[in-house]
Structures are given as structure tokens and as C-alpha cells.
Description:
With 555 residues, the chain is α/β, with parallel strands linked by helices. Helix content is 30%, strand content 16%. Among the domains are: 17-156 and 395-554, 3-Layer(bba) Sandwich (FAD/NAD(P)-binding domain), CATH 3.50.50; 259-338, no CATH class. The chain is built from 16 helices and 20 strands. Strands 1, 2, 3, 4, 5, 6, 17 and 18 form an eight-stranded mixed β-sheet that branches. The longest helix has 21 residues, at 450-470. Residues 154, 160, 175, 193-199, 218-219, 221, 341, 362, 367, 390-392, 505, 510 line the site of ligand NA7.
Amino acid sequence: MNQHISPTDTGSSPQKSFDVxxxxxxxxxxxxxxxxxxxxxxxxxxxxxxxxxxxxxxxxYPGARCDVESLSYSYSFDDDLQQEWNWKERxxxxxxxxxxxxxxxxxFDLRRxxxxxxTVSAARFExxxxxxxxxxxxxxxxxxxxxxxxxxxxxxxxxxxxxxxxDFEGEYFHTGLWPHxxxxxxxxxxxxxxxxxxxxxxxPILARDAAQVTVFQRTAHYSVPAWxxxxxxxxxxxxxxxxxxxxxRMRENDSGILYDxxxxxxxxxxxxxxxxxxxxxxxxWQQGGFNFQNSFADLTRNQESNDLYADxxxxxxxxxxxxxxxxxxxxxxxFPIGTKRLCVxxxxxxxxxxxxxxxxxxxxxPLQGITKSGIRAGxxxxxxxxxxxxxxxxxxxxxxxxxxxxxxxGRSLRSEWSEGPHTFLGLAMxxxxxxxxxxxxxSPSVFTNMFVAIEQHVDWLADCIAFMQERDIDVIExxxxxQENWTAHVGELGEETLYPxxxxxxxxxxxxxxxxxxxAYVGGMQVYGDACSQVAENGYEGFVLSSTSATAQAV
Length: 555
Ligand code: NA7
């Protein structure tokens, strides 16, 4: 595939034509570059950011931290890398994860093939040339035979329409676009809009530093304690001694995550006597993190069991939060627990016991808009100096539909997805030849440890591209039949769960006007990985492969 293209040296040359262009220099893009380079391909990565890291480059809000434990949330592809890198805490904070991304970029000499500060505005497939043409915001055109969107699941931040924001005389920030120099809130009055994971992580830190924090809550979210702390060197040593085995177990379970005890309790919560059930909830609560969800097997499938989980957390909230009105407002009731991503916190609920923290329940006092000096909810104006929009993302599809992607015959991905995304395996779309997505909609992505999902996709894609190289295949495209069958399957699996009961970003329901659909594959990482392997073993069944070369082998 690369014989017509000169070797890449993007650092110094104005080269504009490549075998592969990868959009995004987060953990997907970095590993994809590493793999494809080893296959002798000329590869360029472009990213809007000024450095590597993707999500972890942008999300620098106070308290930003991964909700998957450090020893699991990292690459497994290089044993020296995983042995040598030492994590500081049980759950890594954003600066450390960003440092890890930088370390990987250095270690594998990746930067020379990455063009930073380059936003991709459009990508179109030119059928006659068999090339993707990538337009950047600087007006430059780049082209490549293959285009891989490594654009992330939570990378299109969204500030909701807030009447009057333009008149606000203070400062405002979105958590996902936090200034790199930080924000000094000392002595200031801060208003936080939103109570999802980003808010739940940042509120305790803001409350420590600011004079006053007022939290504007539309929907109370469930959070479990992280019990974060320094990573015990002995634990790390023992884990690393069996890293390969642990990684294999991660790939072979639904969530891609390992826990201390565990694993998932296979009984249904409703089938267990109350005292044993309480003991199980309590044990998992004391372990911290997502393991709480594994107390029983039917959390997201049985409303009756789900209610028992919810009741346990409600009681915890009432125990922690001293003011009964605030405690009641913090008890989530609008959706089954677990159907919006569970938050993992450090002192979130206890923060409401501080004198300088106030909760405004937007159900009782709806958000009216922003004034010159604050936020109006109901008939009260709350004066603030800083507004923090912890209002989330156009998740799963936003980073892709923000790019004007045009496939065969000029068809637009935005239009094709106006009623929800249709993909084959979350990897490819019919009508968009030689275009791939890493952790795209319809793949497990956010339902698993992202590193497990990323490595599985990148490995699969690298093998697929090697297959194309070996056989002189120029064009690969998902068939419409395979795509529609897969999309229906993703939706059907979702409908068997309680997830559709929540207005969550998993369902596309957090964005006004976005069609409600099930955006990720809920069948588990291993089942999904097997399905991908099967497709490859059957000669990329479900894809149409073609070649312009007379020497190409039939497939
Ligand atoms: P989330 O989880 O989408 O949370 C966004 C929050 O912002 C949520 O509480 C929303 O309330 C709230 N929101 C959004 N729009 C509005 C308006 N217009 N008015 C009031 N409140 C609003 O985003 P995060 O950044 O916290 O977390 C995203 C993921 O990153 C998280 O799941 C982890 O995986 C890491 P709503 O619930 O929609 O009523």
C-alpha cells in the first residue's frame, strides 16, 4: 500500500499525502500510530490540542481523576512500559495520566508523526482517487488512503444555551475546556451547573479553595466513594508480577476492569436474604469504586434489585449529609442506579456539610438564566464570580459529527446519523470506504475500561490493514446489511436492560434534539472481541473488499 508514498517526516517536511491519517492523539491515536508505523506505513496524526493526551489533555478541572484504577487504566502492549511506569495513587489524577501519555509519546518516538494545533474540519472520500481528503481549520488539505477517527467518546464539550451568558461579568469555564494555567477561585463565589462526574470530582476541591460554592442540580446522580490514596508499593509489585495474567482477565470480562476481591457476585439481589445483601453492599461500598455495581449480577437488568441498590445509597447519603433537606435533594430518584455512569468520588456528599456550600435544586427552582452578576434560579439571583459548566459532552457521536465527513457519492455522516448512529461493530460505516472509528458508537467503549477497548480496536484494525497490504486490497467498506444487523443487535441488547430508562448520554438524551438511541454495545468486552475476531477469521465477513490492482488476490 505504501510503495507509492515517500517516507514520512512530518516534523520538517510539508508532506501532504499519507497511507493513513489518524485524527486524534489520545490513547487510541498514539497506539494506532505505533502499530501502523511498525507495518511500514506512512502515518500522520492530527490533533487540535498542542500536545498528546486527548481527553486527558483537555479535562484539567480541579479534582479530575480516572474512575478506573491506575493499574488497570494503562496500555498492556509493551511489557517494559507497564513494568517501568509507577503510578502514584490507586486512582490517577489527570496530571499523572497526561504525564503517562507524554511518556509513551517520547518512549516510542511518536511526536515526529503528529501535527498538533490542527483541527480537522472536514473529511471527504474522493472515489476516483481512492483517497480521503482531510481539511484542517488552517485551510490545509491532507490526503490518505485510509482515515482513522481516534476522536474519543467524551470529547465534544457542551455548554447549554443559557440566556444572558453573554452579559455575565464574571468568568465562566467548561470542565472539559479548563484553562491550562488553572483558575484561582480563592476568595471567590463559584456557581457549578451540573452534578455529573466532573462536578462531583471538582466540587470538593472548589469548596476547599473558594469562598462560596453554589451547586445547581437538575438531576441528582449516584456516587460511590473511591477511597483513593497512595498506591501501596507492595500491591503494585504483586500486581505487576502477574501483569500478563491480569491483563488477560481484563480482556475476558465484561467491563475490562479487575477488582481486589471479586469478581461479580452471580446472584440476583432480590434472591438474597436482607442481612446478607446488606453485608454484600457494605463490603463493596467499603472497597470503593465501580465494584459496588458488582454486588449482584442483576443491577442493570432487574428494577426490583436495582431499587435495593438505590435504597442502600440513599441511606448512605442521609447518613453523611447533615441537613435533611439537602440530603433528600441529593438522593437520586429520576433513573435506576447504574443507568447513568456511576460517579466515583472523594468526599462529595460530605462537602455539603461545609458552611460555604449550598445546593440549589433546579426542580424546585428552575434555571432562568444568567445575569450580569450571577445565576437566576426560580425567583432568586445567586451572585457568583465564576461559573463552572460541568454540563457534559455530546458523547459518542459529537466529535465525529462535528467534522463534516462525506463518504461515497458525497453522503454526509451527519445526515446518515441524524436518527442515531449506524455502524458495523462501532468500527466502520457503509458508504464510508476506508474510514474507521476507534471506540465508535456501537462498540463497548464507555461500558468497559477504555484501554482494553482501545487496544482491542487498534490491534484489530492493524491486522485488518496488514491483511489489505498483503493482498493489495485498496478499498474496504462495511456492507449495509452487516451494518444494519449490528446496529439492530446493539439496540436490542440495550432494550433488555434498564439503561433506556435514563435520560443519559449513553442514550444521547443529554443533548436537546439528539435522537434517542443506544450508543454503546452492552454485551460485554469479551463477547464483542469474539465477534470482531470471527469477522476477521472469516476474511472480513461483513465488509466489501476490492482492489484496483490486477495482482490482488481474491478474498
Ligand atoms: P455528565 O455526566 O453528562 O453530567 C452533566 C451534568 O450537567 C448533569 O448533571 C446534567 O444534568 C447537567 N446539565 C446539563 N445541561 C444542563 C442544563 N441545561 N441545566 C442544568 N444542568 C444541566 O458530564 P460529566 O462531564 O460530569 O461526566 C461525563 C463523563 O466523564 C462521566 O460519566 C465519566 O465517564 C467521565 P442532567 O443529569 O442531564 O439532568
